[in-house]
Amino acid sequence: MLLFIVLLFISRLEAKEIEVRVGYFPNLTHAQAIVGIANGAFQNELGNIKINVKIFNAGPSVIEAIFAGKLDLAYIGPNPAINGYIKSNGDALRIVAGASSGGAALVVRKDSGIKTAKDFHKKKIASPQLGNTQDISLRTWLKHNDLLMADKGGDVQVVPVGNPDQLLLFLNKQIDAAWTVEPWVSRLIKEASGVVFLEEGSLWPNGEYITANIIVRKGFLDAHPDLVKKWLKAHVNLTQWINEHLNEAKTIINSELKRLTGAALGEDILDSSLARLKITYEPLKDSLFTSMEQAFEQGFLGEKKPDISGIYDLRILNNILKEQGLASLN
After folding, report:
1. Residues 38/255, Cβ–Cβ less than 8 Å
2. Distance, CA of 40 to CA of 151 (rounded, Å)
3. Are strands 124-127 and 157-160 parallel, antiparallel or unpaired?
4. Which of 12-26, 182-196, 315-329 has the least mean pLDDT?
5. Interval 87-97: pLDDT, tens
6. Around Cβ 204, how many Cβ atoms within 10 Å?
7. Whole-angstrom distance, CA of residue 211 vs CA of residue 235
8. Which pLDDT belongs to residue 148?
9. What pLDDT, on the 0 to 100 scale, is given for residue 192?
10. Angle at the Cα of 212 from the Cα atoms of 210 and 215, rounded to 5 degrees
11. Using DSSP, how many helices (H) and how many strands (E) does the chain show?
């Protein structure tokens, strides 16, 4: 009897210690995470399971935390997810849902003299980070337009620099253009007299391409599929709620951005940014596989093309969609 009581106590203690360690960026592309943490939607679904929130600003640090076993679930862009999957030989993570689509564009300075692709010769173009999703898109576009980068014998300089610094460089005329994502596209336009040269959506079928996914550490997915399901159920419901109650969602998002970063977005910036983005739970798998091909062609993924066919696990998401009478995803 005593042994039974001790074992019961230990099991309850272990149950209380279970938590979901979640990472996301204070970015509009991670809208469900921002809203769901703020309004308690995830906590309501998870019940008494603790949510341990970690805020990140770069994909590589998210992947490092996944590798170290310090993070269970995260909102992240496609290319960092691909890199994490490849570097771990497929053991570290799985993509379990999409989060956002679109939102990226190539913005040029109004006084840069850039009107056509040929005008990018001898110009400096910024991207948010070496090898990140927008950086790969930029390098691929340059290649398709026969524009050689300086490190490959050409005259176009690609300058990987953080989004806030892009704005300053733009204003100081130290860069001529930037391939970036919202809200920085709108900020370059509104605050630095930028002009959209190219909407990235124009390069993709139906204008759709993945901007952010949900990844889950494989060990956590295997051990706690029930918790992943609860999180994804809230994620799907939040996606629908945000799209149906955009004005309410914007208020929550901006309040959280101010709390997390110290500054809210102007209403015009917020409206412009969300108009360019699509909040979704669809993973848009084809666009991720295309991003992998592009990254490989740009020399970021080694000499042998990697196999990422197992990067997705959509079983839980599709189960939720079926329960809600929504279309399943391949």
Report:
1. yes
2. 48
3. parallel
4. 12-26
5. 999 999 999 99
6. 18
7. 16
8. 94
9. 94
10. 115
11. 14, 11
What is the C-alpha to C-alpha distance for residues 313 and 254, in angstroms, rounded to an integer?
Answer: 32
* First and final C-alpha spacing in the chain: 51
One-character DSSP codes across 98-123: EEEEE-EEEEEETTS---SGGGGTT-
Written out in words, the top-level CATH class of the domain with range 104-207 is alpha beta
pLDDT, tens only, 136-157: 999 999 999 999 999 889 999 9
Taking only the tens place, the pLDDT of each residue in 272-313 is 999 999 999 999 999 999 999 999 999 999 899 999 999 999
- Torsion-angle region of residue 121: left (phi > 0), alpha (psi -120 to 50) or beta? beta
Cα distances from 323 to residues 33, 89, 295, 320, in angstroms, run 22, 33, 37, 5
Torsion of CA 19, 24, 30, 33, to 10 degrees: 20
CA–CA separation, 212 and 79 (whole Å): 9
Pair 305, 90: CB distance under 8 Å = no
Q: Do domains 17-99+211-323 and 104-207 have the same CATH topology?
A: yes
Give which of 278, 232, 209, 310 is closest to 73, Cα–Cα. 232
CATH class of the domain comprising 17-99+211-323: alpha beta
On average, the pLDDT of the chain sits at 93
Q: What residue spans define the domains of the chain?
A: 17-99+211-323, 104-207
3-state secondary structure of 32: helix
